[in-house]
Amino acid sequence: MFADGTWQARLTANTANDGDPSWQPLPYGTQLSIKAPSSVRAGTKAKITGTLSSTPIGTVCTSLQQVTLTKGSATIGPKTTDASGAYRFRTKITKKTKVQVTYGGTAACNPSTSVKKTIKVT
What are the DSSP calls for 3-29, one per residue? Predict the structure, then answer.
């Protein structure tokens, strides 16, 4: 739009009244890393660790957050991340299993899911 008010252009196709907009901050982006052994002896416990991180960098979305582990079709947890966003699970592996960690998010922090890791049994 020009300074004199001509050439007004609609920026969206939304017909809602923008006279009283509700401005809200965008949620933080989050990422989950995962480390798991590639193989374990049958019946032993595997240590699965990783870190919840966020963008922009800060502890709002990383410190003391709940994460869950999916082992095959079972859900384990939740576990709480430490002050730096680190988490740790120990779980018995009896057969070849895929594991993945999930963070459900909050109003201020987006949810995220780690990549899947396969743990083989020797």
Answer: TTS-S---SSS--S--SS----PPPBE
